[in-house]
Every structure is written in structure tokens, then in C-alpha cells.
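Example 3.2
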Amino acid sequence: MPDLFDTEPGQTPLDPDEREALIPGHIQVRSELNEWEAMNISKAQRKYLFGPRRRFDLHDPEFLKKIHKEMFDETWKWAGAYRRSDKNFGVPWWKIPEEMKKVGDDFKYWKENKTYSPLEIALRYHHRIICVHAFANGNGRHGRLVADLFIRESKAPTLTWGSKEMIKKGEFREFYMQAMRKADRGDFSDLNLFATS
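Structure, written as C-alpha cells:
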């Protein structure tokens, strides 16, 4: 039987102390953890994406930490806290506060100066958040929700993040990872395709 904390390619492995911070004690297998996290995330999505349209301080690192906390507060004790160890991806852990401030400042500038279309701002912001990889886990899901909030605020078409089944189910993660690697080189075409398909 696969271990509860086995990772797929592209996923960030958790350190032993991060694993110890799992809140629900009844979870035994990965599918149960995935389901539990999905329910936790769904609660945060309902809070932020439905109901009256509001503006959020999406450039503020403290607000971004709050969103992560609400997405994972019933799953991980470290929800909403920056990671305290280096991972297979992202900036060194001690640079996270500085880098998240830079990312937020860039996003605010793009938004205020209409540097790009709302879709491209959302994709670039998502990409930069992922590159920092501020949290022990959940960075991709967090970055997608943040992008969704900006898109909703901008009244632009909703992002679907591969849910329209244009991308085969088994190839979903690999396509996303390749799109992110292309975005690292400044080519957002595949990330655009992924986010709108």
C-alpha cells in the first residue's frame, strides 16, 4: 500500500516535522488526505469566490498567508505559515518574506498600470507565487485561488484550470508542470491554455 505521504512527480515532499502537523488523526491513505484537503479548500473557495464581488488586498503577503490558512486550517497545523525548510523547488526558506513582498509589489504595479491584460496578470502572478513556493505544501492550489480572485475582481472570464477535459486526466499534472517551466522562460502560452481549458 502506498505511504500516506508518497509524492507524485512535481509534488513537494514534506519533512517529518511537517508530516507530524497533520490535524485529522483518522487519515490513513493518500486518497483520504486528498479528499480531506479538497473539502477544506472548498470551504475557502466558497468564502472568497461566491457571494458579493469584493476587492481584496491580493498584493499583501499577510492576506495571502490568511488565504492559505483558510484553505488548509483543518488539515495542517502549519497552514498559513511560511515554510521553515528548503524544498526541491522555490527560493531558500529565509528569503520567502522578502520575495513575497516583491511579488506582491509587482502584481500591484501591473494591476494599477494595466501593464498586461487581466488574464496575463493573473497568470504571471500565479507563476511568481509558485516560483517562491512559500508554503510547505498547497502552493499550486493556493496560487490558483489567488489568480481566480483577481480574475473575479477584474470581471474577466473565469479560469477553469484544465477542468474542461481538453487535457487528458492522467496528463493534467505533467501538462501543468511543463506549462510552468515554459513560463519560467517567459512563454505563458501553455499556462494560458491550461488556465482557460
